[in-house]
Amino acid sequence: MVGVRQPRHPDLGEITLMEVMGALSDPIRVGLVRVLADGRERGWSELRAPVAKSTLSHHLRVLRDAGITRTRQEGTRCYVQLRRRDLDARLPGLLNAVFLAADSDNLGAQVSLAEDPSTT
Amino acid sequence: MVGVRQPRHPDLGEITLMEVMGALSDPIRVGLVRVLADGRERGWSELRAPVAKSTLSHHLRVLRDAGITRTRQEGTRCYVQLRRRDLDARLPGLLNAVFLAADSDNLGAQVSLAEDPSTT
DNA sequence: TACGTTGTTCGATATTTGACGAACATCGAA
DNA sequence: TTCGATGTTCGTCAAATATCGAACAACGTA
Fold this sequence. Notes:
The structure is a homodimer. Chain A is an alpha+beta fold.
């Protein structure tokens, strides 16, 4: 990515419940995960959250470090994707439960996707 | 209870995903919840955790405030119980997922019950 | 090669959190 | 009523977190 190369992605066995729970105890991050819920890869710049870009970068890092998302760099741009398969394998049912509760309370609604992907 | 009366217990509708996730992102607290997993009420003094009693009190308060446990006072003693029904109603599947993951990793194993309940 | 874009990293804060021991409050018992 | 037991609360610290703006680094492009 831009700045530093090769963000660390913990592999399946390194994903821990404690870290995932901690990562998902912040509304911005839950919002980000919800936005990625459909499994599609999203561009960093599509993500809309009411925080400074350095803060958004921080949150995305927490998610990545916890093994919740995967970041891919392509040229100058980054793309983020939910590691749903890995999470479901390692922590069965957790993501579903979080989505269920978050959806019903519209938690993390402050986060959204840019309507127009070109709004990069 | 001892010290101050009537600990606050959020009712069903006040339980939030964010607070529960935060409460369950600490190994001691996950350990406590695991110890209460069978639904039986336990005496405060039965709980064994590698922290000072003021710290244990703190953790039990975090769990109580999040709506995860219910505390009852009887004379000089306190009894704690998991609010499983409420949690399952408000956050379906979450507790199960946490138990599943915590059990398989033996998370929070530092917490246990006194072998002899009289070890009060 | 000089720029502009895109995220990341670096301080700097302010807040929250975990932990401890000591003081305290409440209840039951001597 | 004087103790002893049982938790809670308080004051204090250290460590972790959330945020921000500014400086940076890596790419693509003019």
